[in-house]
Every structure is written in structure tokens, then in C-alpha cells.
Write a structure and sequence with these properties.
Low-confidence stretches of chain A: none
CATH topology of one domain in chain B: Rossmann fold
CATH superfamily of chain A: NagB/RpiA/CoA transferase-like
Radius of gyration of chain A: 22 Å
CATH superfamily of one domain in chain B: NagB/RpiA/CoA transferase-like
CATH architecture of one domain in chain B: 3-Layer(aba) Sandwich
Helix content of chain B: 40-55%
Largest interface: A-B, 75 and 93 residues
Distance between the termini of chain B: 60 Å
Strand order of the largest sheet of chain A: 1-12-7-4-2-3
Structural class of chain A: alpha/beta
Mean pLDDT of chain A: 91
Structural class of chain B: alpha/beta
Number of helices of chain B: 22
Low-confidence stretches of chain B: none
CATH architecture of chain A: 3-Layer(aba) Sandwich
Oligomer: heterodimer
Chain lengths: ~240, ~475
């Protein structure tokens, strides 16, 4: 018996159970915004709406991030954002960081400037090293791809240069968010993801991670403890310029 | 699926007398309070629940099409799809993958399906270390126990119990606070993550349109399980599908709210195939095992079908007056509480679990709280009726009980007989009354009062007072 025959058998059982004669295409009551012209309209509608409501969305985002135990810092420019990162590093007595590739803050080479303060960027040349170094680093610094206002959620897409371990293994994660990444919630996110994949002619990213506050557990007497497997601290820096 | 529900009466009787257990279980009310607050402030909360149910109805009603679509997408993305008719087949697939890749250590995310098919035992039997990494599951595994709640597997254990356990099994003594214990577990498990060859997870959802597996958690252990080991194996029941990402949005809005009283869990991972060229972490191989294990049988039974809509959020456990008194273990099944009382008989057979459908007051709290509005009380009644009609050939109720019910039905249809049937015992009950209640009924009726008191029969029936009133 091959694996395929098990699949055919299960699908056959399902058809019998549902009294289905043949593969019929499911008909759904509501319109699905997958036709490209429609999707285009939906996406431009979402973008406009988010831009129009940006101030309100950022306020909501800040209050949610704070409510769930994240720290929020609004930086007027890249220098002020860098100062905040430096301050977090100093309070944590951080000696090493790992970071996403490319510019974290426009016009500021974050790793080099931190290097001047004695904090070493652990760069990796191989994939095995990436995990090993992220596991010993004191800080992980990343950008985000989107932010969701109504739940205080960061959305990170895994791709070349945007390793998953950096927001996961170090005890502190600092994420830099730009105002134009702010969406109202999940209902905005999924059409944008679908649209981006379509425009670029590729599939969804191999891993899309939603991060909402620090890692937490309540498995011992339902007592909240943060930092069980992932970062204990989550800092969100909004680069407001 | 292995069950020990035959001893439900005995096990629940012991649990009911366990006051410490009930103190532990009381904390679960916190989930319900937060859940209710969040739903109250969600403007379209009730509509979202209706929508979620519609999506489930639609998906389950076209399951063959969506499963085929999911398979095509996963394969197109370079993943491998395996189909398993039974738990044994699923275990064999995992063991074969482990053998082929020389896997010595597996890290596991919490997954009801792997509990259902008893995967850990199979791995250990094959000399492969299988480490549960969810903190609650880790505690339960160290204690060689079974999880007692879908969401909070170690809810039956106190801080003191866990402190002793860590001293005994991990050699770290005198841990007082939950924080300290968590730090120890983090260190121990981090070593395991960094050296594991395979990560095994369940799947909260499979998205047919994109070939995506969705995993919802708070701790980060699932992210580690899918990010660090070379191979990721996800096990998913056939019913876990949603057609599209837009459908997923509906479920993500209600799942965390229902499960833990959060707007969104700390982490949600959408895994679409293995890592792509140029990426530095994430599993290099992705395997999806799609499991039937009795689910198509449930699908074929139209009265039972909606039990496949379950999201495994655990909300019905938290509100159930029976679960609150006896906890999860007494049910003798990985699926406990109200939802367990309907799916355990469906998976394992009513003959092995006939007491579970009766372990309910039919108060309806489970139906009220269920995010997809599964009518659990209706299904409980159906299962009771199946048993009493001996539909499954497992004996049904004792002859005396059947006779008594027949007599009752006959009397109900004959007014004079009915009046007499109550008036006579009302006069005769005197010697049997203790504190105004019937605590020990005689003869064959004794079973009724074994676990509960029977209220004393009134001297005069409502009917006769009503007649006088006229």
C-alpha cells in the first residue's frame, strides 16, 4: 500500500460521506476578491484608508502594544530611534547583537554605531552560524513588514536577509516600524499579502510571523510569566519621519 | 485512540472528592471572564461566530475539493504530503521519516492530534527522544502524566507539585515561584531545540488556497520547533481546513479570544512550505501528514458532523459544571470536557465510553460559549439515545431500568395511574427520608441515589393544588 492509495481512499470516504458524485467546484455566497482587477481596487482602498486614519491607527497600536506588555517608543527621527536602541542595550548590559540585513534605520548604520559603544554585531557567514549566534546574542534587531493597530501586532516575513531566529532567540527583540506599515488589522493584511505575492509572481513567504507582545505562558497555576521560550522583552520603535 | 473511559464513574467519584483539584480548576474561570469581556467589546463578535460556523459548514461540506487543493499547493511548494487512514499509519510515517534521516531527538509542539495517536510512546519505543516543549506539556511529560486541559495541560498541578517534580527530575531544588521554574525550563529546553533533528507540530488551520499551515501559540516553542530543526513534520486532522486567507482572518479573531481571553496570541506562524533558497533558518524539509483516524466516519453521520467544526479552544471545558468538578483526567481520553464527551464516543466507540454522554447536566453553557456554536447538548442527547436503543450493540441500559422507563411512560399517558403512582409513594416515603431528602432508595432504584439525593415527594401534587385553586 502506497501513501497515495491512502490519500485516494480517504478522499473517496469523504465523497461517500458527503454523497458527492464528482469533484464540483465549491460555490460560495460571497464574492471572493481574487480576480486581479477587484484585488487591485481592494488594495488601493485599504492603502488609502490606512493613510487617512494613520494618526488614529498609531495611537491604537501604541495602546495595544503597551497593554500586552511591549514597550513602545515613538522616535521623531532616526537619531532619536538610535538613542533609544542604545539605551535599551545599555540597560540590558548587552555585549552582542544580531540584526536583519540591510538598513534598520534610514541613514544610520546601527551595528557600526553600536560597535563604537562596544557592542559587537555577530554576523553570520553560514546558516548554522546564524542560529548559533542568535542563540547567544543579547539583542535581536529587526524591521517589520506590517503592523496591525487593533491588536498591537507586528508582522514579519521570512526571506533572504530577514532571518526568523533574530526575533526569536535573543532575550530582547527590538523592532523598528514605519508609519506607512501601519494597517488597521487582519482584514487589511491578507488582501495586501495576496496582492504582493501576485504582483511579484511568487507564493506567500515561507514563514509569516505575527508577534503580539513578549513570549508568555500561564501554564503554572495560570500565573503569567513572560519570556518562556521567545524574547522576554519586546521593544517597538516607531520611526515617525 | 486509547481510552480509559470505562472507569469514568469510579474516576470521577474520586475526582469529585479531591478538594485540591477543585481549587486548581477554579483558576480556569479567569479565562471565561476575560473571554466574555473581549467578546462584549468586539462590535461584530456574534456575527463573527456565525461567519466562522458558515465557513466550517462550507469547508467540511466540500472537504474533498479543499484537501486536494491544499495537497497540490503544498507539493508545488516543495513540501511532501502524507495521508494516514489511522493513528498507526501516521505513527509509521513519522517513524520512517525519522529512520531515513537518522533522527535521534525530536522537539514537539503541543498538539492534540499527536496525543490522540500516542506518537510520543511510538517514538520512545523506537529509541528516539521526543521532548514536549510547551511548558505545561513538559511538566506533564516529566511527571509521566497525561494533559488534563486542552490549553493548560498542567492545570491540575500546583506550584508545589511542580517544584518537587523539578527537584526530582531536573535536580534543581527549592524553586518557589513560577518565574524561577520557567527560567529552568527555558534553559533545559533551549538545549533540546538547538540539538533536535526534527520538529513535530500539529496545525490549527490549513489554508487550501495557499498551502499554508497556521500555528497559534503564546510561548514561542512552536516557532522554535519550526525554525531550528532540519525537518518539520506537521500533523493535521482532515477537518482543520479553511479555504482562504480571508477565512483565516475570521478564525484568528475568535480563536485566541475564546481560548485564553486574548485579542491575539503572542505568536501566530503561517508556514508555507520549507525555507526557500537564500534563507538562513527554518526547516529545510516540510512534511504534512493528513490524518483521518475515524473522522470520515463522523463526517458520514449527519447528526455528528458538526463536532468536526471544533477549534480545540477549550472554552467549553472552562464553563462546564462537570469539568469544573472533576478535571480532565477522569474522562479517560485526550479529549475531555463537553467536547470530549461527544468526540471520544465518536472516535473510540460508545461501548468504551458510554458514561461520557451522561456526564453532563445539559445546562447548555458549552453551546453558549462555543466559538462555532456546536450544539453539544443535542449531540449528547443523541448519544444517550443511541446507547439506550442499543444502536451500537453494546448492551444498552439494564433491563430493570428499561422496564421502569416503560412503566413511567405508560403512567404518563394515564392520568389516574399517574396520580396514584405519586400519591402512594408520597405517603410511604416517610421512613426513607433523611434531612428531608431521599438519600437511599430501596431495591433496584438504589442506583439513582448512589451518587445523588432524590428530593422528597411533595405531599400534594401541583396538579391537585391547581384543581383546588379553580
Amino acid at each position: 500500500m502506497t501513501a497515495k492509495s491512502a490519500g485516494e481512499e480517504i478522499l473517496g470516504e469523504i465523497k461517500r460521506a458527503l454523497h458527492r458524485e464528482r469533484n464540483s467546484v465549491p460555490v460560495r455566497g460571497e464574492a471572493v476578491a481574487s480576480a486581479s482587477s477587484q484585488l487591485e481596487d481592494v488594495v488601493s482602498g485599504i492603502r488609502k484608508n490606512c493613510e487617512h486614519r494613520r494618526g488614529e491607527l498609531i495611537e491604537g497600536f501604541e495602546s495595544e502594544v503597551t497593554r500586552i506588555g511591549g514597550r513602545f517608543h515613538r522616535a521623531a527621527d532616526a537619531d532619536s530611534a538610535f538613542q533609544y536602541i542604545e539605551q535599551v542595550a545599555s540597560v540590558r548590559e548587552a555585549r552582542t547583537i544580531v540584526a536583519w540585513e540591510g538598513q534598520i534605520l534610514d541613514g544610520i548604520d546601527v551595528p557600526r554605531r553600536l560597535g563604537e559603544k562596544g557592542i559587537q554585531l555577530l554576523t553570520e557567514t553560514t546558516e548554522a552560524e546564524l542560529v548559533r549566534k542568535s542563540a547567544v546574542a543579547d539583542l535581536g534587531v529587526s524591521r517589520v513588514d506590517y503592523a496591525l493597530s487593533d491588536t498591537g501586532t507586528l508582522v514579519l516575513l521570512a526571506r533572504n536577509g530577514q532571518a526568523r531566529s533574530i526575533s526569536l532567540l535573543p532575550p530582547v527583540h527590538i523592532a523598528v516600524v514605519k508609519p506607512d506599515q501601519m494597517l488597521s488589522g487582519l482584514s487589511d493584511l491578507f488582501p495586501l499579502l495576496r496582492h504582493a505575492a501576485k504582483v511579484e509572481g511568487r507564493d506567500l513567504s515561507s514563514a509569516i510571523t505575527f508577534i503580539t507582545g513578549p513570549s508568555r505562558t500561564a501554564d503554572i497555576e495560570l500565573t503569567l510569566v513572560v519570556g518562556v521560550h521567545g524574547p522576554q522583552q519586546l521593544h517597538v520603535v516607531l520611526l515617525d519621519c | 485512540m486509547h481510552v480509559s473511559s470505562e472507569s469514568f464513574i469510579r474516576d470521577s467519584t474520586v475526582a469529585v472528592q479531591n478538594k485540591t483539584l477543585q481549587t486548581r480548576l477554579r483558576v480556569l474561570n479567569g479565562f471565561t471572564v476575560k473571554r466574555n469581556l473581549l467578546f462584549a467589546e468586539l462590535p461584530d463578535g456574534e456575527m463573527l461566530r456565525d461567519r466562522a460556523r458558515e465557513i466550517k459548514e462550507h469547508t467540511i461540506g466540500n472537504l474533498d475539493v479543499y484537501l486536494t487543493q491544499l495537497e497540490e499547493n503544498v507539493v508545488r511548494l516543495g513540501g511532501t504530503v502524507h495521508w494516514a487512514r489511522t493513528g498507526a499509519e501516521a505513527r509509521a510515517i513519522v517513524l520512517e521519516l525519522a529512520r531515513k534521516n537518522n533522527v535521534r531527538r525530536v522537539v514537539k509542539a503541543k498538539s492534540m492530534v499527536t496525543e490522540e495517536i500516542e506518537l510520543n510512546e511510538a517514538l520512545e519505543h523506537a529509541d528516539i527522544e521526543a521532548v514536549e516543549t510547551d511548558l505545561g506539556e513538559y511538566i506533564v511529560q516529566l511527571a509521566h502524566e497525561k494533559p488534563s486541559h486542552i490549553l493548560a495541560p498542567a492545570v491540575h498541578k500546583s506550584k508545589g507539585d511542580i517544584s518537587e517534580l523539578f527537584a526530582d527530575k531536573l535536580g534543581v531544588a527549592d524553586l518557589k515561584e513560577a518565574e524561577e521554574m520557567t527560567v529552568v525550563a527555558r534553559q533545559r529546553l533551549r538545549e533540546k531545540f538547538l540539538t533536535a533533528d526534527m520538529g513535530i507540530t500539529g496545525a490549527n488551520f490549513g489554508v487550501a488556497e495557499t498551502g499554508t499551515i497556521v500555528l497559534v501559540e503564546n510561548e514561542g516553542n512552536i516557532r522554535l520547533t519550526t525554525t531550528l530543526p532540519r525537518i518539520h513534520v506537521a500533523l493535521m486532522g482532515i477537518e482543520k481546513l479553511v479555504p482562504s486567507l480571508d477565512d483565516l482572518a475570521v478564525f484568528l479573531k475568535i480563536l485566541a479570544r475564546s481560548a485564553s481571553g486574548q485579542k491575539m496570541s503572542s505568536y501566530v506562524s503561517l508556514i508555507t512550505g520549507a525555507r526557500r533558497p537564500g534563507e538562513c533558518d527554518g526547516a529545510e524539509e516540510f512534511h504534512l501528514i493528513i490524518l483521518d483516524n475515524g473522522r470520515t466516519r463522523i463526517l458520514a453521520d449527519e447528526e455528528m458532523r458538526e463536532s468536526l467544526y471544533c477549534l480545540r479552544c477549550g472554552a467549553c471545558l472552562n464553563v462546564c459544571p462537570v469539568y469544573q468538578k472533576i478535571g480532565g483526567h477522569a474522562y479517560g481520553s485526550v479529549y475531555s470536557g463537553p467536547i470530549g464527551s461527544i468526540i471520544t464516543p465518536a472516535f473510540a466507540g460508545l461501548e468504551k465510553s458510554k458514561d461520557l454522554p451522561f456526564a453532563s447536566t445539559l445546562c447548555g453553557a458549552c453551546r453558549e460559549i462555543c466559538p462555532v456554536r456546536i450544539d453539544i447538548p443535542r449531540i449528547l442527547l443523541k448519544l444517550r439515545s443511541d446507547w439506550s436503543e442499543n444502536k451500537h450493540g453494546d448492551g444498552g441500559p439494564p433491563l430493570v431500568e428499561k422496564l421502569a422507563i416503560k412503566l413511567w411512560a405508560f403512567a404518563m399517558r394515564h392520568r389516574i395511574l399517574y396520580n396514584l403512582a405519586f400519591r402512594v409513594p408520597a405517603f410511604l416515603q416517610g421512613p426513607l427520608l433523611e434531612d428531608g431528602k431521599l438519600k437511599r432508595l430501596p431495591f433496584a432504584l438504589g442506583g439513582w441515589t448512589q451518587n445523588r439525593d432524590f428530593p422528597a415527594l411533595a405531599r400534594r401534587s401541583f396538579r391537585s393544588m391547581w384543581d383546588d385553586g379553580k
